[in-house]
Amino acid sequence: MSEFFAMGGYAAFVWTAYAAAAIGLAGLGFASWRRMRALERKADSLRAERRAERGRA
Amino acid sequence: MHRFANPARFLRIARAVQPWTAAATLIAFAFGLYYALVASPIDYLQRDTVRIMYVHVPAAWLALGAYATIAVASLVSIVWRHPLADVCARAAAPIGATFTAICLITGSFWGKPTWGTWWQWDARMTSVLVLLFVYLGYMALWSAFDDRQRAARAAAILALVGAINLPIIKFSVDWWNTLHQPASVFRSGGSTIHPAMLTPLLIMALAYLLFFVTTLLMRMRAELAAQRLEVAAERRALALEGAE
């Protein structure tokens, strides 16, 4: 197992490269999902509000 | 009505497809990482640093692929004024910029132990750095206009002009004497990589592609919701004006 993490002496380079890719992709994916959820909820609640207003009028 | 029918249909399809592409992304990364880190052999010259290739090369491919997506969407936007084309182009830009940054960083961490340098101003690396700046400029241009139509038009023109960089990146290793090695997968005469290394590379490329599709769908949905909110805000402002 420790041999696996040592990467033949290149651990610093291999794992830093993989960490950079993982942080970049996971960060962007998560941020995109959160932005989508927030904006869609806001837009949906606004639509529901307008429908309610129209119902009253 | 045609203008609104299309995004509505897109949203229906996106909502249905997205859980599947998201699940497929995770599965492809699980297989890809296993092959890349465990089940593939070391290179006789690069030793274990060859494993960096499996996150670097797909990032480079998708950095170009995302830009090609933006360029095609921009052309569709200018010629046919399809309402989803601008949404697609804008949504793809941050993903492409992230792929480009990952490509540059992982390349650097491969270059140091292999070439003995983090960076060289050779044609391949410089043209990819330019691609990153084009992405950032494109994103900045979108947010520089208040009017969405004008922003879309300006951004589409920038995207098409910037597309000249794609063949420069692709052929930089043939046209100039670069430190970066020439193509070994997409080249005339076929791939020169051994199947033991080509397999993890292609699985990781598939994972990156699925990630691109999933994130593009999420960002397009966010963009369409933002547009709905903008329209609602405008309508409200008009209603208030009318009431005065």
What does this protein look like?
The complex is a heterodimer of chains A (57) and B (244). With 57 residues, chain A is mainly alpha-helical. Helix content of chain A is 89%, strand content 0%. The radius of gyration of chain A is 23 Å and the shape is rod-shaped. The mean pLDDT of chain A is 92. Chain B has 244 residues and is mainly α. Helices cover 80% and strands 0% of the residues of chain B. Chain B contains 7 helices and no strands. Chain B has helices at residues 2-39, 53-80, 83-115, 123-144, 148-162, 165-175, 195-243. Chain B starts with a helix and ends with a helix. Chain A binds chain B through residues 4, 7-10, 13-14, 16-18, 20-21, 24-25, 28-29, 32-33, 35-36, 39-40, 42-43, 46-47, 50, and chain B through 37-38, 42, 47-49, 51-52, 55-56, 59, 94-95, 98, 101-102, 105-106, 109-110, 112-113, 211, 214-215, 218-219, 221-222, 225-226, 228-229, 232.
Question: In angstroms, what separates the terminal alpha carbons of chain A?
Answer: 70 Å
Q: Uncertain regions of chain A: pLDDT < 50 for 5+ in a row?
A: none
Question: What do the pLDDT scores of chain B average to?
Answer: 94
Total of DSSP H or I helical runs spanning 4+ residues of chain B = 7
Oligomer: heterodimer
Structural class of chain B: mainly alpha
Low-confidence stretches of chain B: none
Question: Structural class of the helix and strand makeup of chain A?
Answer: mainly alpha
Choose one word for the global shape of chain B: globular
- Residue fraction in strands of chain A: under 5%
Roughly how many Å is the radius of gyration of chain B?
Answer: 21 Å
